[in-house]
Write a structure and sequence with these properties.
This protein is about 40% helix and about 20% strand. By secondary structure, the chain is of the alpha/beta class. Helix 3 runs parallel beside helix 4. The longest helix is centred in the N-terminal third of the chain and has 18 residues, at about 1-20. The chain is globular, with a radius of gyration of 17 Å. The two termini are about 20 Å apart. The chain binds pyridoxal-5'-phosphate. Pyridoxal-5'-phosphate (PLP) binds near residues 78, 219 and 221.
Length: about 230
Amino acid sequence: MLEQAIRETQESIASACERCGRSPESVTLIAVSKTKPLSMLEEAYGFGMRQFGENRVQEMCEKAEAFGETPITWHLIGHLQKNKVKRAVAVASLIHSVDSAALAIEINKEAAKLGKCQDILLEVNMAEEESKFGLTADGVLPLVQELAILDNIHICGLMTVAPYTENPETNRIYFKKMKQLAVDIAAQNIDNVSMDILSMGMSGDYEVAIEEGATHVRVGTKLFGERNYIQ
Ligand SMILES: *Cc1c(COP(=O)(O)O)cnc(C)c1O
């Protein structure tokens, strides 16, 4: 089951890349393993998965510890509170969910203590949904300019969580706007800032996201099945 889901997802990523003239290597599949037991992650690892996404710091750290020295790239994709930054920075390769100066400054501080430069993405609420975290599109460039001077973070790009929808085509406009926003920011040539990563697309809409330029897709349900939050 899991193996087949992984293969199918990889194949559909390759097809989406082909449709828009991109190389399949230009897209990283992040297996979103939140709420799933370690045994499932181990199984996915056995089938070649090396990039895992978690939305809670505690859960990410516990799973990372269980994997020990195994070479896994951990992505923190969920909302991050300042009091959890220290533990997040110790484990996460990429923090996708930075949406305020205060949070970025805290990450910079904790990364400095570890002698690390923390890769981060700025989370953008492209559809301006009230229920969602993230910056407005207009808020991104001013924040990038403010944060660019920090030595222990590196802004690598943008992340968005598009609205839940039955029809992925309705999210295409948000992915398109994200890509354009990244292009506009990259054109400013700000030191210590790159816009190489566009983290967008989930189980329901990752193929459309790839067609619009996603470099990282975050897929949970399609790989691991529905989540049960009541545990
Ligand atoms: C849970 C989650 C995902 C994965 O969602 P699926 O629809 O299960 O693929 C992706 N991104 C974020 C930020 C999430 O919290």
